[in-house]
């Protein structure tokens, strides 16, 4: 009789976490409005009507929400078993984008694969696949994480392989995210601090070397450090972004009234959408967006702690990885737009126009919702 009650309790899964769900829907809805505001002028010139990007963004959001609910239905144990194969598939896709006539080249970069009606960016999905794989790795090596080879060297070797593939695209922004997420997970997973610092410092030195040997990257860094001295060159985009922040003031110029989006600020509806938010909605809009991301990250780590207390280390590490991934992408994108970090081609999760980014971010939130459900269901059966 007890077994029957336990089985029934498991089948009656708890409702989806309202804090995560409503925060996600708020971000998606807010992003939908801001993408239209930032892209309408360019859409008229490109397609002849102002809602060109709006319709595409609506389709991206709808598919991403469907993906989220699909992910919620899949048990975490399935993701754990599939994670090595997903990672290998992601690496294979990175190779495919480099093959002529297979990968789609845009603005000199080969980062996309064509699926007929849509293009996907494999590096976006590789980020999530890496989180799933590393969570399993940390569980399997739990007792040997203090050893250099089993704790950190294996992961660093994997990241070097992905790094080479991403540099060939080139996509240094995704490479930075992969390294940061991986080492963030290793740090919270309990690797030895001396090993962690040694590899981080080595990675920083390698990054500096990559900048020094590439004239293009060197110019980007100089444009970041002295944007107004390069206002018509490599510092142009950052100068225009800073002007958007300066015009915004406390409460902005008003929704739809941005000047910078009128062909002054490139990528206004993608990488620099946050700058348009600042110009149209001011400091209040900036705090609103930052607050929403803070809620997501804090909730992710709360779910991770609940899973750890329930004895599910894999789910704990996945939730931590998702929190680190979304938090870092948001911090880097906003930092770039505010001139605090060098320019990188990274979208703002849930807000920026871009199907692959939104799809990956919603799938990651689906994992969090599933972990929260399983943890609560497990607690209800005790």
What does this structure look like?
- This protein is mostly helical.
- The protein has a domain at 1-73 and 247-382.
- 71% of the residues lie in helices and 3% in strands.
- It has helices spanning 2-11, 18-47, 52-72, 76-96, 122-140, 148-168, 172-189, 193-212, 215-225, 236-248, 273-309, 313-337, 355-380, and strands spanning 103-106, 109-114, 119-120.
- It has a three-stranded antiparallel beta sheet with strand order 1-2-3.
- A hairpin with a 2-residue loop joins strand 1 and strand 2 (109-114).
- Helix 5 packs parallel to helix 7 (172-189), helix 5 (122-140) runs parallel beside helix 13 (355-380) and helix 7 crosses helix 12.
- The longest helix is centred in the C-terminal third of the chain and has 37 residues, at 273-309.
- The chain is globular, with a radius of gyration of 21 Å.
């Amino acid at each position: 009789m007890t077994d029957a009650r336990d089985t029934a309790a498991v089948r009656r899964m708890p409702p989806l976490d309202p804090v995560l769900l409503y925060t996600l829907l708020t971000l998606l809805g807010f992003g939908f409005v801001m993408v239209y505001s930032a892209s309408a002028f360019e859409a008229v010139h490109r397609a002849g009507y102002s809602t060109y990007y709006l319709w595409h963004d609506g389709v991206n959001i709808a598919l991403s929400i469907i993906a989220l609910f699909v992910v919620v239905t899949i048990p975490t144990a399935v993701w754990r078993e599939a994670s090595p194969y997903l990672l290998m598939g992601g690496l294979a896709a990175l190779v495919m984008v480099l093959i002529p006539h297979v990968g789609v080249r845009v603005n000199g970069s080969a980062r996309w694969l064509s699926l007929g009606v849509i293009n996907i960016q494999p590096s976006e999905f590789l980020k999530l696949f890496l989180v799933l794989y590393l969570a399993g790795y940390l569980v399997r090596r739990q007792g040997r994480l203090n050893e250099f080879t089993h704790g950190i060297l294996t992961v660093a070797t994997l990241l070097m392989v992905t790094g080479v593939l991403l540099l060939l695209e080139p996509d240094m922004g995704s490479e930075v995210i992969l390294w940061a997420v991986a080492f963030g997970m290793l740090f919270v997973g309990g690797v030895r601090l001396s090993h962690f610092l040694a590899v981080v410092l080595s990675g920083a030195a390698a990054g500096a070397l990559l900048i020094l040997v590439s004239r293009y990257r060197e110019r980007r860094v100089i444009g970041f450090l002295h944007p107004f001295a390069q206002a018509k060159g490599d510092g142009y985009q950052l100068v225009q972004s800073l002007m958007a922040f300066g015009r915004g003031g406390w409460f902005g110029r008003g929704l739809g009234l941005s000047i910078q989006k009128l062909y002054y600020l490139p990528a206004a509806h993608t990488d620099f959408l946050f700058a348009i938010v600042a110009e149209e909605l001011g400091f209040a809009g900036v705090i609103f967006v930052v607050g929403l991301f803070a809620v997501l990250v804090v909730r992710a780590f709360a779910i991770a702690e609940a899973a750890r207390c329930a004895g599910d280390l894999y789910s704990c590490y996945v939730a931590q990885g998702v929190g680190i991934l979304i938090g870092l992408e948001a911090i880097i994108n906003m930092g770039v737009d505010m001139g605090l970090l060098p320019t990188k081609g990274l979208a703002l999760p849930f807000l920026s126009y871009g199907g692959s980014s939104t799809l990956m971010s919603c799938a990651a939130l689906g994992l969090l919702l599933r972990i929260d459900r399983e943890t609560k269901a497990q607690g209800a059966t005790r």
